[in-house]
Specification:
By secondary structure, the protein is an alpha/beta fold. The chain has 7 helices and 7 strands. Strands 3-2-1-4-5-7-6 form a 7-stranded mixed beta sheet. The longest helix has 58 residues. The N and C termini lie far apart (69 Å).
């Protein structure tokens, strides 16, 4: 009888030990994902911090300075575009998709210059011949350099695109280059962050922006302010060059600086 009770006590201890061990394993398994999640969050915050720093730099320097900045460390360009794509993934509609849709309903024979092409999504999505320009090239189809001084001949393309790429203090120089390379009656398509052209939030007056573009030698065709994230403009290059071009009063486009979270 005593031996039976002893065996029961030993069996009971084993069950308690197994139960405690199981509880420890369960707690450990719960803590592991939490630790992993914490590390992922920290990596995301560090990456986001780098993106904000580079983004602010690009909006507050000239194109030439930005080119030198990335030449010194090309990896910063990859870091910037990773952050940019993360930001774009939160937008309900991406402007590049609207531009691609517009191109797809026009003739594939139109030659396109994509200024500030990023991952060259336009070129990869349409049948047109597309010249893709950006500060750094990680793709053989992307031409690296200063967008204010491209390799294109004058009056050689039908469409010039700026999709969230009028960054930098000398953005008018990019538009002047677009005017130079466009054929008469060629299209200028601009998508910009809405807050940069909203006087209520410290942005530029969109009418002053349109006026300046027209004084460069373009005719306004359409403007779309319906999207809450970006505005979309279509212009065409005037047939006849402006004989006496006066000094253009370009409005300052405020930097698009993301808040720290």
């Amino acid at each position: 009888m005593e031996g039976h009770r002893s065996r029961n006590r030993k069996s009971s201890k084993r069950r308690r030990a197994q139960s405690n061990e199981g509880n420890r394993d369960a707690k450990k398994s719960k803590s592991e994902p939490s630790s992993s999640s914490f590390l992922e969050k920290m990596k995301a915050r560090l990456s986001g911090g780098h993106f904000r720093m580079i983004n602010e730099k690009l909006y507050t320097c000239t194109g030439e300075e930005a080119l030198s900045y990335f030449k010194e460390d090309p990896s910063l360009f990859n870091m910037y575009h990773a952050g940019y794509q993360a930001q774009m993934s939160q937008w309900p509609v991406q402007p590049v998709h609207k531009i691609i849709e517009w191109l797809q309903v026009h003739s594939p024979s139109l030659t396109v210059a994509d200024f500030g092409c990023g991952d060259a999504r336009v070129a990869k999505s349409v049948k047109n011949k597309v010249f893709s320009f950006d500060l750094v090239s990680n793709d053989p189809d992307v031409i690296a350099g200063d967008m204010s001084n491209t390799c294109l001949d004058s009056s050689s393309v039908n469409v010039a695109i700026f999709c969230l790429s009028l960054m930098g203090l000398n953005y008018p120089n990019y538009l002047k280059e677009a005017h130079r390379v466009l054929k008469p009656s060629g299209w200028l398509v601009i998508a910009e962050v809405k807050s940069r052209l909203d006087p209520k939030t410290g942005g530029a007056d969109p009418n002053k922006f349109i006026k300046a573009v027209c004084e460069l030698g373009f005719t306004p065709v359409s403007k779309d302010f319906t999207n809450k994230m970006f505005v979309l403009f279509h212009f065409t290059k005037q047939e006849k060059p402006i004989s006496k071009r006066k000094e253009i009063a370009w409005p300052e486009l405020k930097p698009c600086i993301y808040k720290r979270r």
